[in-house]
Amino acid sequence: MRPSIVERNSGLDRSLLVRASVALAAFALALVGCGSVMPGSIRDGAGSGTSPTAAGNGPGVTEDSVKVVFVGVDLEGVKSITGFQSADAGNPAKQVKALETWVNANGGIGGRTLDAVFRMYDAQVDSPAAEEQLCNKITQDDQAFAVVLTGQFQSNARPCYAQRETLVLDATLVATDEATYAELSPYLWSASYPSYDGFVEAYVATLAEQGFFDGREEVGVVAADNPINRATMEELAIPLLSDAGVRAEVAWVDTTDQGSLFQGNEQGAVTFRTAGIDRVMFLGGARLASIFATVASSQSFEAQYSISTFDNPAFFVNNPDTIPPGVMDGMVGVGFAPSQEVADDALAFPDSEAEQRCVDIYGESGITFSSREAARVALPYCDAALLLQAGAIDLSGDLNASAWGAAVEKLGSAFVPATGFAGALGPGRHAASGAYRVMRFDSDCGCFVYEGGDVEFPTS
């Protein structure tokens, strides 16, 4: 039997253990809108198992209506248990209803009525079995044409929907690479976030430009141990770091359970400390950054850390008592989703035409937001609904994933997500976010800020 976290760490300072345990519980809170990520993949051989339907209507499509399921995660329940601070994201069911009302008042989905269904998912019991059950409910009971996913991190989730020919509009900050988009084409899309490949290229390039590696021969990389991250590290990140003049000391972390998660981070901190490494970056998401920063302190390891949207910047700022002092000092990296990372006084809300449009859509149903962070769930929902509508606007005949996907590719960069800065769709591209900004922690305001303008993500 695997020893408990407390048994393995009996010699550590109790206050540090408490912080580490609290940080772990943050992951459930971070599942929606706070930037958590557990990359999934079908590279282990589980493909979609189906050929795209090129003719006829897709599931959930009638002559008059299109059924779309929006999945939500209960953030407030987790907050009440953990005491973590974050802006109230509002009522997602009402937000979905507002989108349905607006879409149907403005042409529907290719002339059909949008039938929007909201389903809450209990992320605290997330498992392959639970996500298979949800997939069955949505594809078999609801018979949905499309699903808007939030908080779905198991590797079987997206292939399950593709096998059922159900379109996935992924509103989760999950690391999905081009190979996975291609394998699940035309069923998997992101209306709000970038492809993981382009992100990694931009991330390493930015850190090099910002001097993060200056004077160092090695950099510590804390990486989630899963097929996508393995492939990305070996084929892309490590070669890019080598080109930047540093060797990568990789700490692979098994993120499938609490014990392995803590154990991997602890071992990584010890390895980095022994090697004299004092620069650390993360590839794999928020659970790694917040856990590692806490566990590293218990191992007497100090370093300067990089930061990205995937590392849940808002959590660091909103919950400083959970993170050891000094951890955020010098953090630099990239940001591509303002609602996840910067305060309204650092970037006015709303800031872009796309953001204003979504705010106005919700406003027509009487829904307002106290801050951009409070809209961190609503904005990706809005992106998904508007992309669904945009892809169907010129489809006069059958509505299925193949026809819709071909139309979406033609949108190119004209579709700009409210969640980000620029559009990036086009032939063979399934992730809509096309730009990022340099982001760093400002100790004067105790917040993350952007520096400079939009920078395009690299595309293959």
From TrEMBL:
Domain of life: Bacteria
Record keyword Membrane present: yes
Ranges annotated as spanning the membrane: 16-38
Entries under PROSITE patterns matching the protein: PROKAR_LIPOPROTEIN (PS51257)
Keywords noted in UniProt: Membrane, Transmembrane, Transmembrane helix
UniProt-recorded name of the protein: ABC-type branched-subunit amino acid transport system substrate-binding protein
Species name: Mumia flava
Lineage of the species this protein comes from: Bacteria, Bacillati, Actinomycetota, Actinomycetes, Propionibacteriales
